[in-house]
Structures are given as C-alpha cells and as structure tokens.
C-alpha cells in the first residue's frame, strides 16, 4: 500500500529523517530520490533505500567515464 501524500510530506518535514540536516534516511519511504527540505534546492537520495547506493555507483562510473574521455582527448 502506497503512503498518502500527507504521510510523504510529514516524513519529508520530520527532522528525525534528516541526518546532519542534509542526508535523508527513512526506511519507511521507498523512494530513491527525495526533494530536499527547500524544494528549490533540488533532490537528494534516501540513504535508507539500498537502490540509492546503486544510483551513487552509476553516477560515479558515469562521471569517471567523462573524466577519462576528457583526459584521453587532452593528450
């Protein structure tokens, strides 16, 4: 059963779900990407969701590949 929009908003506003004020960690929330407390600042990852670590690995590989290509073409 999907949580209601009100429940999702309450999770997002709850300071107990934010570690150091910047890392979202909520095991009950199954979303990988979560809006930051100030929504105009973008999104962050739900570090309680194992899929977020897959997303981090994909981003690291992608940016590593970009840096590799830049260095390769530089020489």
How would you portray this structure in words?
The protein is an alpha+beta fold. The protein has 2 helices and 4 strands, in the order H-E-E-E-E-H. The protein has helices at residues 5-13, 50-74; strands at 18-19, 23-24, 33-35, 43-45. The strands form 2 sheets. It has a two-stranded antiparallel sheet. Strand 3 (33-35) and strand 4 form a beta hairpin. The model has no long low-confidence stretch (mean pLDDT 93).
The total beta strand count reads 4
Distance between the termini: 55 Å
- The whole-number mean of residue pLDDT values reads 93
Strand content: 5-15%
Count of separate DSSP helical elements: 2
Q: Helix-strand pattern, N to C?
A: HEEEEH
| Low-pLDDT segments, ≥5 res | none
The strands making up the biggest β-sheet line up spatially as 1-2
Oligomeric state: single chain
Specify the helix fraction band: 40-55%
Overall shape:
elongated
- Biggest sheet architecture: 2 strands, antiparallel
Give Rg in angstroms: 16 Å
What attributes characterize this protein structure?
single chain; 75 residues; alpha+beta; two-stranded antiparallel ribbon; 2 helices; 13% strand; elongated
